[in-house]
What does this fold into?
Amino acid sequence: MATQRDVRQIALSLEGASEDPSSFRFYVGGRQFLWLWQERVDPKKPRVPNPDVIVARVADDIRKQMRLAMDPRLFFTEPQYVGYNAVLVRLPVATRAVLREVITESWEVVRAARSGRAR
It folds into this structure.
C-alpha cells in the first residue's frame, strides 16, 4: 500500500521536481506532472481532494488505455479526464515499485514536453 509520503519521496527524488507549498502538486520545469484527484462527492458542491488518489500524466491515449487495462483496481479515469492524457491511481492498491514507475513516467512526459522533445 502506497501513501502520500511515498509519492512525495519519489516525486522529489526526480531531477528538477518541486512541490507546491500549498497543495499536493508536483512540478518539473514549471509544469504540473502529478497531483491529488479532485473528487465530486456531492453533485451540488465543489470537488474535494481525495487523499487516496493521485493523477499522473501519460504520454498519449494509447499509454493511457494500456494503464487502464493493466489493473482496473489500481488505474481508472472519469469523465473529467476524457481526452486528457492522465490516469488516476489508487494509492491503497499501488505497490511502491508501480508507484515509482508511474510517477517517473509522468515526470518524463512533462519534462520532455517542456524541452520540446518527444518521449
Observations:
- The mean pLDDT is 94.
- The chain has three helices and six strands.
- Residues 4-114 form a domain with the Aspartate Aminotransferase, domain 1 fold (CATH 3.90.1150).
